[in-house]
Amino acid sequence: MKILQKLGLLLLPTCLFWGGTGLSLVSAQGVKITIETGSNTTATVTSSDAKEPFTGQRPAVDVTILLDTSNSMDGLINQARNQLWNIVQEFAKAKKSGKTPLLRVSIFEYGNSRLPASEDYIRQVVPLTDDLDKVSEALFALSTSGGDEYCGSVITEAIKRLDWSSEPNAYKAIFIAGNEPFDQGPVDYRSACKKAIGDGVVVNTIHCGNYDQGVRGKWQEGAKLAEGKFLNINQDEKVVHIKTPHDKIIIELNAELNKTYLWYGSKSKRQSYATNQAMQDSNAGRGLSSRAAIKSSSLYRNVGRDLVDTYLEDASVVQELKDEELPEELRGLSVQERMSRIEEMAKRRAEIKQQLAEASKKRDAFALEQQRAAQPAAPGAITLGDAFSDAISEQLQESGFEVGE
Asked: Could you list the residue ranges forming a coiled coil in this record (predicted)?
């Protein structure tokens, strides 16, 4: 026991194994201690990386955004809408074992008086999904109304309701933004935050307003309890989109990219997918270049909706679909002919994505130069996107991801 105390391992969870030569203890952190029998008792410590190597198809990233939609939060909602694609770009920089993650995003709203008081003014807007157009659509459908903001309740519901990844070392995080005290409501925020981190979900708190007020309102303590970051933003700060000479070609390439999607399913579903993609392009407004950059990456995927993405993951879908579930251009064709058309479209899409990625890289470089040459931002001019960026890179690396520029 004294040996373990000297090694600082007394409090580690351990498993004990008795062998012919002594006692071995293996901690949950991957540290092995062997105590040999005999006159000279020794302890051997073998450390292994706590981050197990990823061996699956795509490493998991699950992110849930909890937005206060009470009366004073119109600015916050607008920032979320305008900066969604910039936030997603932070994840596009990450890889694990050379593989881009499968990003799923969920949205909850809380503190809105239109929501039932019996449910603590909480609503799950979107479950964890890789359909980023659905996330964007949901953000643009939000509206604010006065209410009571219960942070402990909404964190608890997010942990309970969502199908969080069970992959070892997945990056799982909650980002909760609001401006009222963190300790309001019937659910103790401390137990909610401890439950979250106990399930491997980090909680980052984003207080809209004065830093000291956020500390007094327990936003900092909530983040500490769940091993997240405490951040402050000005929810009314206007989001600035830098215009560049590369935007025109990016917009043109995005339009060409949209022509490569082969939506399938019932007629209403096909129309819905196509309409929503075009609508979210429109909603992106001056941020369309950021959205187009994401559409050129593997984070933007439409498996189960688009035949190209689905075929590349599971070619058998071509044989399983009924003729009426196919897009018009694939009807009346043999299975082999369908596959050839899909492969041609996949090749065309890959070419456009490559051009789009190159144009986006040039755009980012130009925008960065413009930012460096501009006047420094005023103190406190921090937006929701800035807060996400501040936390994501560091936390992804802690979850075993490599994060590039």
From this structure: 342-369
Beta-carbon count within 10 A of 328 CB: 8
Which residues fall within 8 angstroms of residue 352, CB to CB, at 6 or more apart? 253, 256, 257, 260, 296
Helices 335-373, 288-295: axis angle to 10 degrees equals: 140
Query: Residues with Cβ < 8 Å from 220, sequence gap 6 or more?
Result: 205, 214, 230
Q: List the domains of the chain with CATH numbers.
A: 2-46 (no CATH), 60-237+381-403 (3.40.50.410), 247-363 (no CATH)
- pLDDT tens for 364-385 read 999 888 878 876 656 556 899 9
> CA-CA distance, 284 to 84, in Å (whole number)?
9
Extract the tokens encoding 331.
């009807």
Distance CA 70, CA 151 (A): 13
Q: Is 85 exposed, middle or buried (0-12, 13-18, 19+ CB in 10 A)?
A: buried
User: Strands 14-18, 94-95: parallel, antiparallel or unpaired by DSSP?
Assistant: unpaired
Per the document, the length of the chain is: 405
Q: Distance (Å, rounded) from C-alpha 384 to C-alpha 374? A: 20
The pTM (predicted TM-score) of the whole model is 0.83
Using alpha carbons only, give the angle 378, 383, 388 rounded to the nearest 5 degrees: 130
As beta bridge partners, residue 82 has none
Q: Residue 35: how many CB atoms within 10 A of its CB?
A: 16
Residue 46 burial class via C-beta count within 10 angstroms: exposed 0-12, middle 13-18, buried 19 and up = exposed
Phi, psi angle pair for 33, to nearest 5°: -120, 125
- Tally Cβ neighbours within 10 Å of residue 209: 18
- For 260-280, give the DSSP string: T--B-SSHHHHHHHHHHHHHH
Higher-confidence residue: 15 or 88?
88
